[in-house]
Design a protein that fits this description.
Order of helices and strands: EHEHEHEHEEHHEHEHHEEH
Oligomer: single chain
Number of domains: 2
Number of strands: 10
Mean pLDDT: 97
CATH architecture of the largest domain: Alpha-Beta Barrel
Bound molecules: coenzyme A, magnesium ion
CATH superfamily of the largest domain: Phosphoenolpyruvate-binding domains
Largest sheet: 8 strands, parallel
Structural class: alpha/beta
CATH class of the largest domain: Alpha Beta
Number of helices: 10
Length: 296
Amino acid sequence: MTPIRSFLFIPGDSEKKLGKADGAGADALILDLEDSVSPDNKPVARELIPAFLRARPKAKRASQIWVRINPLDTDLALTDLVAVVAAAPDGLILPKANGPSDVLKLSHYLDALEAQTCLAAGSIKILPVATETAISPFRLGDYAGAGLTRLLGLTWGAEDLAAALGASTNRGADGRWALTYQMVRSLTLLAARAADVQPIDTLYVDFRDDDGLRASSRASRAEGFTGRLAIHPAQVAAINESYRPSAEEIAFAVRIIAAFDAAPGVGTVGLDGKMLDIPHLKQARAIVAQAAAYAS
Ligand code: COA
Ligand code: MG
């Protein structure tokens, strides 16, 4: 299975936006019950979301359908779970996760609810937003080795973390992430790779800036992220294209493999005046394999 490139948020109380979901082309949808839905509208979202899921049985889904529940330390989370699990979402986004123990707790709730509703055990995956509380970055390394079989990936968020830190901005004067946010972003990437799950980059807030989104997403993929969150359907195409190998990358990877094939038994070769060794060959093979997977 190829990694999920685009996760598109849709406020779970908006019939109009839910109506645009199927045409968006996202690898996964996130039907939201948390902060894009006001407290007064949570009950209606808890009806619209299961209806949306039931109208799209798992075998026939063009996009995976995920649900963002409310944080586990609120009295909303269990009501969310009771409302949506029986309708068989592909996965749940857990916001404001404090660490792997929160994912384990959610996983235990799902063990019980899957059994009750006759869903296959372990079928619902979990993607925590793993940097939204002050303690959470200190626990990122603990996701590796925590035995969380439902864990699909790790993603990070800058807005709630800024609120948790009493910060007035999460940007530096140059418009880039301030140091704290750069740090947790890198740690999320490292933690996800250490745990052998998908590193999912955060959203690009300026949803009218297609060029900026493409440049940011290509850079993100080059660093190792496999996908990112989206907030507007217009962002999906740019994200899907950016998080798959480009034609130039594939062509270069094919040349690297050919250069090694032409020198059997050799650990290092020269190409275009640069030294290539085994890590380059491994990366080239991974790119060709990824390209084939996305093509099929
Ligand atoms: N999913 C589905 N449809 C969406 C959408 C989304 N995330 N965002 C916008 N649309 C629809 C709009 O309803 C609009 O439909 P229309 O043409 O029938 O009127 C169309 O796409 C164009 O929208 P646009 O006018 O460009 O944006 P907007 O001002 O209506 O909405 C946001 C802007 C940011 C409020 C909206 O994109 C949104 O709700 N995003 C998701 C927010 C969210 O879930 N956040 C939680 C994670 S941080
Ligand atoms: Mg948030």
